[in-house]
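Structure tokens
________________
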Amino acid sequence: NELKAIYGAAVEGRVSDLFIRKGYVQPAQVNHETLDVILTTDDSQITTDDLVADIIDLTQQNGGNAHFIGADHFPEDHNLLVITRY
């Protein structure tokens, strides 16, 4: 899953630049030990109200940059794009 890979890279400090479609919010169930991410809208399963905010925080804490892009300039089938380092 794409979000799992991006979340893992953010946790490991490998995200140099994160591009986010403005307004994108994604509730999820996250296992912080295994870095498993399950997208859900079931309130009883949600461990984070917004995985995107978590990824932004991790990226910035590790020296990366977050860029918000208008939906009209973002690829139609994507909400997040990432440039990783090393």
Helices lie at 2-11, 51-61.
